[in-house]
Structures are given as C-alpha cells and as structure tokens.
Hints:
Elements: H1 3-15, H2 19-38, H3 44-64, H4 73-92, H5 109-132, H6 136-145, H7 150-157, H8 162-190
Helix pairs in contact: 1-3, 2-3, 2-4, 3-4, 5-8, 6-8, 7-8
Amino acid sequence: MSNLDQEKQLLEGLALKDGSVIEAIYRDNYPMIQAFILNNNGNSDEARDIFQEAMIVIYEKAVSGTFELNCLLKTYLYSVCRRLWLKRLQQLQRYVNLVENVEETVVVDEDLEIHDKHNANFIIMENAMNKIGEPCKSLLDAYYLQKKNMQEIAADFGYTNADNAKTQKYKCLVRLKKLFFAQYKNGQAHG
C-alpha cells in the first residue's frame, strides 16, 4: 500500500470519527506540533488548542468528500497548525521569527478561510438559538441534538400528536432562520 493510500485511509477513518484513527493521528503528530509551538513563543495549553482546531479543520475537509490530499497528512496538519499559530501570534501581538520543525509546508489559507466561515456561522447560529426562546430552543435541541423523533417530542412537549409537533418544529425553524439571517446580515455589514 502506498503512503498516500494509507493517508487516505486515515482521512476516511477521521471522517467516520474512528477513535483508533484519531488516536493514531494524535500520537504521530502531536509531539511535533507541541515542539513547534513551544519553540515559537507558546505553551503546552496553546499547543493543545491549536492542535484540536487543526483536527477540526481536517475533519471538516474529510467529511466534505471533495478533499484531495496531495501530501502526507503530517505535512498538511503541520501547515494548518503553523498557519493557525501565526494568526494567534498576530492577535496576541507576540512577534516571533518562526523556528521550523520540518522543511515542507503546503498552502492552507483557503481551507482556513472556509473553517473560519463555518466557525462564524456556528457562533451566529448559537446566538440565534439563545434568542429564539422556549419552547423552540428545547424543541430544536431535542430534534437535532438529542435526535428524538416526533412521537417522543410530542410526548415530551405535550403536543396532541406527532403532526402538531412537526408543525411547531417548522414554525421554530422559520423563526430561527429569520434570527440567523438578521444577525448574519449585521455581521456582514460590520465585516
């Protein structure tokens, strides 16, 4: 099996949230990332944060189904961590001449931009969920996060049947979308 095939298997395992694959990626790469951040004005907590965020970026790429890995996962992960750390250093106004662990990096700016957009949208969605009020917040939470079916939701929330619960869920979604897009537009205007 070629190296890239092995790397693709790692990505597939990551997309499926396979614990042993996540552990292997962590075991094989975390020491290198930690050393890089410790050598570049960071501490071990920051190294953990950056590594976890990079894993989320890679997970998002893996589940997108359109990601073509053209280098070793190690190189890609290092490149993402390096970019995230540079960004963090700029935000903290800690300037440093990077001490590199490895020679090879790849350009990951576009991937991080997509990740930032997801993050921003997630925060807006969270704010919208907090503003939506009850019973909508709990109802949507039960459906999307707790994965309850309409019968269970009807019983939990005191609706006469699953159809009524479904109608209420629809109304809640309409409200949530309105809140989301109102905030999204405001965010865009300030951006």
